[in-house]
From TrEMBL:
<keyword id="KW-0479">Metal-binding</keyword>
<feature type="binding site">
    <location>
        <position position="228"/>
    </location>
    <ligand>
        <name>(2E)-4-hydroxy-3-methylbut-2-enyl diphosphate</name>
    </ligand>
</feature>
<feature type="binding site">
    <location>
        <position position="79"/>
    </location>
    <ligand>
        <name>(2E)-4-hydroxy-3-methylbut-2-enyl diphosphate</name>
    </ligand>
</feature>
<feature type="binding site">
    <location>
        <position position="200"/>
    </location>
    <ligand>
        <name>[4Fe-4S] cluster</name>
    </ligand>
</feature>
<comment type="pathway">
    <text>Isoprenoid biosynthesis; isopentenyl diphosphate biosynthesis via DXP pathway; isopentenyl diphosphate from 1-deoxy-D-xylulose 5-phosphate: step 6/6.</text>
</comment>
<feature type="binding site">
    <location>
        <position position="230"/>
    </location>
    <ligand>
        <name>dimethylallyl diphosphate</name>
    </ligand>
</feature>
<comment type="similarity">
    <text>Belongs to the IspH family.</text>
</comment>
<feature type="active site" description="Proton donor">
    <location>
        <position position="131"/>
    </location>
</feature>
<dbReference type="GO" id="GO:0019288">
    <property type="term" value="P:isopentenyl diphosphate biosynthetic process, methylerythritol 4-phosphate pathway"/>
</dbReference>
<dbReference type="GO" id="GO:0051745">
    <property type="term" value="F:4-hydroxy-3-methylbut-2-enyl diphosphate reductase activity"/>
</dbReference>
<comment type="function">
    <text>Catalyzes the conversion of 1-hydroxy-2-methyl-2-(E)-butenyl 4-diphosphate (HMBPP) into a mixture of isopentenyl diphosphate (IPP) and dimethylallyl diphosphate (DMAPP). Acts in the terminal step of the DOXP/MEP pathway for isoprenoid precursor biosynthesis.</text>
</comment>
<feature type="binding site">
    <location>
        <position position="229"/>
    </location>
    <ligand>
        <name>(2E)-4-hydroxy-3-methylbut-2-enyl diphosphate</name>
    </ligand>
</feature>
<dbReference type="GO" id="GO:0046872">
    <property type="term" value="F:metal ion binding"/>
</dbReference>
<protein>
    <recommendedName>
        <fullName>4-hydroxy-3-methylbut-2-enyl diphosphate reductase</fullName>
        <ecNumber>1.17.7.4</ecNumber>
    </recommendedName>
</protein>
<keyword id="KW-0414">Isoprene biosynthesis</keyword>
<feature type="binding site">
    <location>
        <position position="79"/>
    </location>
    <ligand>
        <name>isopentenyl diphosphate</name>
    </ligand>
</feature>
<comment type="pathway">
    <text>Isoprenoid biosynthesis; dimethylallyl diphosphate biosynthesis; dimethylallyl diphosphate from (2E)-4-hydroxy-3-methylbutenyl diphosphate: step 1/1.</text>
</comment>
Length: 316
């Protein structure tokens, strides 16, 4: 039986970013240096395949520092943590390694600098997301106000309209964030923004790549976890740019083949915490069912690399 023809548009850049790659290396090096188990507060990155792989090597994932024994190393996830967490670890005399993405740390430093200058912060982010919780937790309670939509801006109760600055979560939709920033500037003309955009290079590049293929495809599959903010934003970008069937899939086994029956073109990308092995798995699944032609659509090249903390580069 002849397989139906299908063109796959493979977005690039896709998959792992430098912050995710660094965080995974930190866990692997910590296990190598101190032996198993090494504890990790929260999923190191939001991807089940990655977490399961590290668990198999000796990582134990917990939600709170209280779940960690004081005599084993603990690693803080790439999303960042409130200041109270490393303070509590130090109080318990624990060995800890901070795997916070340097681009998230940049936002933390920015918030602290504005706070030192007497400014109240407005954070654009998603309530409850670990990165948002971690960033807001850099400053005393009440010093960071959260907005998720342009409508939220109208309800902000600020201390002084002329003494404000804003920061953002690094994994947001570029277009949605621009709307919220416009609403902030319209209501608070004196508000100070970041010197350089807080949304990270990887989030931006992956969204641009989806925009480049959205008009060519009948369906978009984003490989990523349901709790991955940047992956969910890629689905939204696909829908917003004309691809009505845009879906998040964790692995090839999650693809709804009936939903894409009869289509001729599919776009494939992966969130910043999804490894390339899962992309290849999806490509193989399509090749089993279709006569596939793969077209790479590359909108940027990435060569960013972050060093791991010095403690992991020193001998035990």
């Amino acid at each position: 039986m002849t397989k139906p023809a299908l063109t796959l548009y493979l977005a690039a850049p896709r998959g792992f970013c430098a912050g995710v790659d660094r965080a995974i290396k930190i866990v692997e090096l910590a296990i190598e240096k101190w032996g198993a188990p090494v504890f990790v507060r929260h999923e190191i990155v939001h991807n089940k395949y990655v977490v399961d792989s590290l668990r198999d090597k000796g990582a134990v994932f917990v939600e709170e520092l209280d779940d960690c024994p004081p005599d084993r190393p603990v690693i803080f996830s790439a999303h960042g943590v409130p200041k109270s967490v490393p303070q509590a670890a130090a109080a318990r005399e624990m060995v800890y390694v901070d795997a916070t993405c340097p681009l998230v740390s940049k936002v933390h430093i920015e918030a602290e600098r504005h706070h030192a200058e007497g400014l109240q912060m407005v954070m654009i982010g998603h309530a409850g997301h670990p990165e948002t919780v971690g960033t807001m937790g850099q400053l005393p309670e009440g010093e960071v106000l959260l907005v998720e939509t342009p409508e939220d801006v109208a309800h902000l109760d600020v201390r002084d309209e002329k003494r404000l600055a804003f920061i953002t979560q690094t994994t947001l939709s570029i277009d949605d964030t621009a709307e919220i920033v416009a609403a902030l500037r319209a209501r608070f003309p004196a508000i100070i923004g970041p010197h350089k955009e807080d949304i990270c290079y990887a989030t931006t590049n992956r969204q641009h790549a989806v925009k480049a293929i959205a008009g060519k495809i009948d369906a978009l599959l984003v490989i990523g976890a349901p709790n991955s903010s940047n992956s969910k934003r890629l689905v939204e970008v696909g829908t917003a740019n004309g691809c009505a069937y845009s879906q998040l899939v964790q692995r090839a086994q999650n693809i709804d083949w009936r939903a894409i029956e009869g289509i001729k073109t599919v776009g494939i990308t992966a969130g910043a915490s999804a490894p390339e092995v899962l992309v290849n798995e999806v490509l193989d699944a399509f090749r089993e069912r279709f006569n596939v032609r793969v077209e790479l659509v590359e909108t940027a090249q990435e060569n960013v690399e972050f060093k791991v903390p010095r403690v992991l580069r020193e001998p035990a």
